Amino acid sequence: MKKKLMLIILVIAVLSATAGALTIRSSAKNDRADAHRYYRSVEITEGDTLWSISSVYADELGMNTKEYLTELKRVNGMESDRIIAGTKLVVICAAEE
Length: 97
Known about the structure:
Helix content: 40-55%
Radius of gyration: 21 Å
Number of helices: 3
């Protein structure tokens, strides 16, 4: 009986610690996501990919690269990942208020 009680207490402690850590991480992510967004145009250069462009801007908005890439395509009305050097792309940036 004491072993079961100790096991239950240990499981509760681990779950509580995990929930606390996730809450802190989520809060930090939301702070970045709430940053003022602005949009600017960038010229695509030879060798650029949507993934490489997304990896540059994603973190400042609290997104991972895949999330940012999806948003980037939505903002630019794109259905494919194909981009062409010399053309313009609207990127999403974050600025602290």
